[in-house]
Write a structure and sequence with these properties.
With about 170 residues, the protein is mostly helical. The chain has helices spanning about 10-20, 25-35, 40-45, 60-80, 95-100, 105-125, 130-135, 145-170; strands at about 135-140, 140-145. It is built from eight helices and two strands; from the N terminus they run H-H-H-H-H-H-H-E-E-H. Strand 1 and strand 2 (about 140-145) form a beta hairpin. Helix 1 (about 10-20) crosses helix 8 and helix 4 (about 60-80) packs antiparallel against helix 8 (about 145-170).
């Protein structure tokens, strides 16, 4: 199914979902994996733990945030795809970032973890048929289909990779 097959999604996540092209979800996941593979690890090593403004996360923490967030969203998605019924609470990403050791890890290790998680996410979504993809998920204060959750996961990566490109890569030259 394609992004245009999503009938409704919460306004809060509209930005992430709309960052995706109108392509099949599996192709969108393939593109997102290529985007991970295309990261310039050497450039990110040179940037190191620099931040573009006081109080902002390092690139290591941004990528760790993507990995953590994706794991949580896969858990939420699986609960609804399997009609388990539990409604998971919201999360506080700043608390999670404050309690990660991402800045102690190499950028290569953090990217490899994100790639592994993305491959597992794609494998999970590839098992879902149209009926499951249309299943509505209620979580925290939001509701959207499993399909929308897939595009939301990818859009979240697109958003943060855009920030890395626009705000962190210029730090390589400072």
């Amino acid at each position: 199914m394609k992004k245009s097959d999503i009938k409704e999604f919460p306004e809060y996540f509209e930005y992430y979902i709309k960052l995706n092209e109108d392509i099949e979800l599996t192709k969108a996941f393939d593109k997102s994996i290529k985007q991970i593979d295309d990261l310039d690890i050497e450039q990110l090593k040179r940037i190191g733990l620099k931040v573009y403004a006081k109080g902002k996360w390092s690139v290591n923490k941004v990528i760790q945030h993507l990995t953590d967030w994706e794991r949580i969203w896969c858990y939420r998605t699986l609960l609804f795809a399997r009609k388990e019924g539990t409604v998971p609470p919201g999360i506080e990403d700043q608390i999670m970032a404050d309690n990660t050791n991402a800045d102690e890890l190499s950028i290569a290790q953090i990217i490899a973890e994100l790639r592994a998680v993305r491959l597992a996410t794609k494998a999970m979504f590839d098992t879902y048929n149209k009926q499951i993809l249309k299943t509505n998920c209620n979580f925290y204060n939001y509701e959207m289909s499993v399909l929308a959750m897939g595009f939301n996961i990818i859009g979240h990566q697109l958003h943060h990779f855009n920030i890395i490109k626009e705000r962190y890569l210029p730090l390589d030259f400072k």
